[in-house]
Each structure stands twice: as C-alpha cells, then as structure tokens.
Task: structure prediction
Amino acid sequence: MLFDTHTHLNDPDLYGSAASLIDEARAVGVTHMVVPGYDRDSSLRAMELADRFEGVYAAVGFHPHDAKDVTDQDLTELEQVWLKHPKVVAIGEIGLDYHYDNSPVEVQKKIFAAQIEIAKRVRKPIVIHDREAHADILTMLQTTQAREIGGIMHCYSASKEMAPQFLKENFLLSLGGPVTFKNGKKPAQVAEWIALDKLLIETDAPYLTPEPYRGKQNHPANVRFVAQKIADLRGVEVDVIEQATFTNALRIFGLEG
Ligand code: NI
Result:
C-alpha cells in the first residue's frame, strides 16, 4: 500500500477529475493521500474531497505566496472552523518562498509564525513549503519550538548535510518527483542516507511529475515511481519503502493503521 502525502487534487487542473484520479491511484495501490490547501478556496476544496472519498485527508492553511492577503479573520477561521474538521490531519502548506516574490519576506514570516502558533494550540503537525529559504525555515522552526508538534518538509530540497537539523526539530522529510530526475543529485543523496522511519513520499501533483512521465501532468498514481526510485537507490525491494513510508504517514497524521 502507498500513501501520497502531498497531492493537489484541489488544484483547478485536477479537481474536476478527482474521482477518476483516485480510482487510478487505488488501482496501483495508492490507498491513502493528503490534499494540502494553499489558500482559502483550495483549503475548502481539500476538505470537500476528504468528505467525499475514503482514504483522502486534508491539510489546510495559507501558502507564503498568498501571505500578503491573509487576514486575522482568515487565521481565526483556520483555527476555529477548518481545523475542527474530522479529516483535517495537518496545517499546510505553510512556509517561506524566496524564489517568487509574491509576498514580502517579513509578511511571509509573520503568517508562517502565526500558523505555527495555531498548530501548537491545536496539536497538529505542519506541512512546510521551503523554496530557496532553507536557513530561515530552520531558524524559525527552532525559535518557535515547532518540534512540539513536528511535521513534514514537503518535497525536501535542501542538502543531505542540512537534513539532520530538520530531523532534530522533529520533522520528517518527504521526497517526490525530483528524486527520479537526472539532475536530482541532492534528493538522491538524501534518499540513500535517511533513516527509513524519517522518510515520506509524495507527488505534489499536478507538479513535479516523476520519470518516466516527466513533462506530463502529475497524478497521485505516480507516487509508485518515487518509491521505486528510492528502493533502487538503496538497493532494497520496493515493498520495504512502501511499508515504511506508509507507516510513517499514518503516524505523523495521527491515523489508525
Ligand atoms: Ni504543494
């Protein structure tokens, strides 16, 4: 069984075909998935999908791109309403994005910190988006004591050398399509090195499609190619990777086996 820990069936490009994409995923053993929100509408769609489909769970929150538009009322709704939904298992995706300049850095940091505090109050893990902001993300996780709740470094893209510091803050590292890329040296090094109880897998569909389908639209069924590549890198059977990452996902999201 496979668990795609990060898949955007709430993305407008996938939302209309969610039912068939879930069927295709189940047909290849992907029985569980988490759909993360990135703004208000996508968080609402994530919860709606979780309501409709068995094995589908939601994360809700405000992405750094949209930080400048997040109001106090939004944060109250996140804490008081969305996080009470029975199939909301995490807050995310939240974090910092220094690649795009969609919101000023100070505003990104403020909204990120506010959502970490909410997560600590509601005792749920956080799903981190880190784009070219590794050092600042790490510093903020340390200074906010985010280790109390822990969470996931989604599509981990920092170095193997930096990885122990994220593990020390009680974060699991999730690998996706880039581990299958020819130029994916950093995630491949992480895949070979990481202890199996700290590893998760994801697609980040519709983005970051793994080989052999790189360049096409990504779907949750493709998470099996991520598992296979990690198994090849480590020289183990794919079942070993599937079972470990499935168990880890159930544990971090507080789900029953
Ligand atoms: Ni995402």
Remarks:
- Strands lie at 2-4, 30-36, 56-60, 88-97, 126-131, 151-153, 171-175, 199-201.
- The domain at 2-253 is CATH 3.20.20.140 (TIM Barrel).
